[in-house]
């Protein structure tokens, strides 16, 4: 039977079918599979079922010429060199669709939390400052109205559209920019620079790729309103983090809600982590148990199809 490496214990049902079709080796931890162990454990494996934390680059593919298929439990595949995999005839699968609503909820949660300074206020209460300072004033913890404001969505794919549906409930005007044409009721398509200049809230929902790396750079951040809020649940590499920290610390931007960073886990001394106007979460946009079970099932079904010499139901190779 072909050998398959699974880089983490997975939830869901479908994973339990795999041992009937392959010699399955699951990394049991503790923690995430280190890169050096991934290289070793992959020896002789034809299949790899991985997470977005596993880096599958050209060098790894070069040292494992026997690898035939990769199923990632993620919709994003920027951790995999898909071009190099395709050139070697390796099928790559992902898990689109099932995390759309969950991730849009996370975008909105960060948007509201950043707008209304929820984390800062929570720390204030828990730190005893409310009681000690007996503080309350008309300007006390004032934030920014969401209802009736303008939301700019960068990337009007499935998650972007789900964010737009939530925005409609808040009576927001919705602008969007997308690399290809889109026609979504209630959403006005605009140029990216115009979106940044006209929005009170900007939600990043575009995939990370060569064309979107550093898309929101210092110049583009400079176009945003001084009291605007930026939310990113897509990928860290889309926003220039140094420029973002500069803008946030010099009152050129009101706040940010960030679920993703260029380097994850984000280092403790990252400049964005010292700013009170940043609300952050550890890449948990799709983290509900129900969604994670669906993602794991999709990844396992991709792997099962590949093991049966069939096309993966969700294959990203061009
Ligand atoms: C993905 O699947 O790419 C998401 O980032 C997970 O939250």
Automatic annotation (TrEMBL):
Catalytic activity, EC: 1.1.1.-
Domain D-isomer specific 2-hydroxyacid dehydrogenase NAD-binding: 108-285
Domain of life per record: Bacteria
Domain D-isomer specific 2-hydroxyacid dehydrogenase catalytic: 4-317
Top-level EC class as recorded in UniProt: oxidoreductase
InterPro entries per the UniProt record, alphabetical: D-isomer_2-hydroxyacid_DH (IPR050223), D-isomer_2_OHA_DH_cat_dom (IPR006139), D-isomer_DH_CS (IPR029753), D-isomer_DH_NAD-bd (IPR006140), NAD(P)-bd_dom_sf (IPR036291)
GO molecular function: oxidoreductase activity
Keywords recorded for this protein, A-Z: NAD, Oxidoreductase
Keyword Oxidoreductase applies: yes
UniProt cross-references to Pfam families, sorted A to Z: 2-Hacid_dh, 2-Hacid_dh_C
Family: Belongs to the D-isomer specific 2-hydroxyacid dehydrogenase family.
Descriptive protein name: D-glycerate dehydrogenase
